[in-house]
Amino acid sequence: MTTDATDGFVHVRGANENNLRNIDVDIPRNVMVAFTGISGSGKSSLAFGTLYAEAQRRYFESVAPYARRLLQQVGAPHVQEITGLPPAVALQQRRGAATSRSSVGTITTLSNLLRILYSRAGDYPAGADHLAAEAFSPNTSAGACPRCHGLGVVHDVTEELLVPDPSLSIREGAIAAWPGAWQGANLRSIVMGLGIDVDKPWHSLRKRDRDWLLFTEEQPSVLIEPEPGRVDHGYYGKFWSARSHVMHVLADSTSERMRERAMRFVEEAPCPDCQGSGLRPEALAVTFLGRSIAEVNDLPFTALVTLLRPVAERPAGADEVASRICTDLVARVEVLLDLGLGYLSLGRSSTTLSPGEAQRLRIATQLRSGLFGVVYVLDEPFAGLHPADAEPLLDVLDRLKASGNTLFVVEHDLDVVRRADWVVDIGPGAGEAGGRVLHSGPVADLEEVTDSVTSAYLFGRSERLVHDARAPQGWLRLTGVHRHNLRDVSVDIPLCVLTAVTGVSGSGKSTLVTQVLAEDPTARESFDRLVLVDQRPIGRTPRSNLATYTGMFDAVRKLYAATDAARARGYGAGRFSFNVAGGRCETCQGEGFVSVELLFLPGTYAPCPTCHGDRYNPETLQITYRDKNIAEVLALSVDDAARFLADVPTVARSLRTLREVGLGYLRLGQPATELSGGEAQRIKLATELQRAHRGHTLYLLDEPTSGLHPADTALLLRQLHQLVDAGNTVVLVEHDLDVIATADWVIDLGPGGGDAGGRVVATGTPADIVQADGSVTAPYLARRLE
Length: 786
Ligand code: ADP
Ligand code: ADP
Ligand code: ZN
Ligand code: ZN
Hints:
With 786 residues, the chain is an alpha/beta fold.
């Protein structure tokens, strides 16, 4: 084997990151390489943790030698040598949390172009000064609406929220937003002192007094007379209206509980000054083709292209600035249309995008960057895509490849793996049982590799799930549904079966299942319970993790508190929490990490210099249970913990269900912030499964198999069918054809995305759908059912 950098290969020698077992592998450049293997096998550890991390490390060393010391703190990947490695760009799904300030326009950088267009070529009101491009951005002080600071929304209280029951008197607590206990009694005394009757029902007070009590900014001090049993001597009390009190808590209180309570009394509404656009009036007054920038931001891309194309095609000599910018805009938006994202608009907040939508936007943006000779490392770019949406994305990746780039794609979708030029299969198992290279070569040669689970699924050696066909035991009828792009939709949901809701991206599947159905009052009455298992993170701080979320950590802490050593020292269960002072490491306050400021990187984390990631102080770590301290238990994988804690019933049950949904490879202490949406969803599902429930439950799931290896999909599917066999109803949004093929019923939405979708195209058994006219899903499903 050669390690020459000029032979067209990347040579990896001695990679040991996470579970990788000192692997050597040669991977070709200028082609598309798929990294495969079950979850936890080590794909990301090789593609991101080793190859991308090393490329990034070299880059920072070259641009900022003085950052070396800091980079050493963050840690270089555990690998002996890599040669032939080009610079790399990573497009990851789970990192880079969306903020409400970022939008489709900022992710794609299209907003910058549009702002230049308005600045240079907009129609200004007579006498108005020309504005700089920044003035069209709600995220700059030049552009932000002064009232909402560019957020587009305002939070305010309303009488209905502050006084939920107007038949109560003030003494009976009519003003629910006021604090309770002593402070509340204090306010009541002040109100009496002001001559307002605290014993009359709220609705019979004068409007003027009600408004004053709720909304005034005045804060008179009032002499409170002594009140027997409450105050012995007079004092001056300060008045707070309900609004001032709520706003004060929201602005200044450090108590999360108080803030949460206060949030109940405010509602979010579009800002009345800027109609939700977040922009100053001067910016909104500028138009292009008769529309303000806010109006253009709301247009779906399909409409945006139609609007701008005539300007782009204007003959030379006309307004050149406008036509040049529009040509650029149209070309870039057309890539988004190709990718099936024509239903999105520039102004759409990134918090409402699915991970797949966000990643496709980033891929399209990269395509225009004109880079060549780089490696793009992609994290499951096809997860959550309908097969019809996958084809244009494959074309885009082909174009990136054709312009001289290399694609490293961590991927589970077998149809995509088949199209790769090369496959690196890692396994055979997860965690300790994985981390070896089973195959690195052309896809066809993977067939010979008998210990590869990927090979078994790719070449049809795996068992298919079979179950008896089930008949619906009744129907839940939804009629006249209006939400997002669903317009006057009527559809019947069958009970006691497994239903798959299908359709291309943007057709309305999530809207129907996770919003309409989840909030439908009849659904809430027809079932004993309704459980929405979504992909939202289980926690937003590294303080919450798998063990805390599932509740098993409480039992583990009790185990430690019950040891002789702990009792001798008087350590209770609280001592073993990393969230409170006592047992935790105070340097990092139990986080295990401290943040390091790097000049060129956004805040990044390094292991705590005191506890080295253990989270606890040395005294706590002296307490062991079966020779392991509590930090070592948090470092165990679910699989290992299942052996270690097999005889602790409550913990063993949690661990069993986690393994049943394919999460045996996760570590107990894995911070919530490091989990993918799919992992978070399966943790919720496992938490749900571990409770034995009676009665008829409706389970709603949004793409539960997205990002799963086919072997893990099979595991999950078995669990879902068991729920139905136990008498429950399951409705899932799904793209995986193997899953759709096993469903009892299919509801196919579409035919397209956004305005081109939102209708029920076909309903019936999978075999019925195959026969349906106009269904985009039908031809793909037909091939699967053959
Ligand atoms: P895959 O990408 O194939 O799902 P990963 O590379 O993410 O697998 O994980 C491989 C193994 O390494 C798993 O056992 C996982 O729990 C472990 N692992 C991943 N990230 C870390 C980490 N930051 N620290 C310790 N172990 C990790
Ligand atoms: P699917 O789940 O089939 O991909 P969605 O239900 O997410 O489709 O979206 C259907 C339509 O509703 C799309 O046009 C999408 O842009 C729109 N939409 C979805 N969520 C929102 C939202 N939070 N705000 C505005 N429009 C939305
Ligand atoms: Zn505003
Ligand atoms: Zn520490």
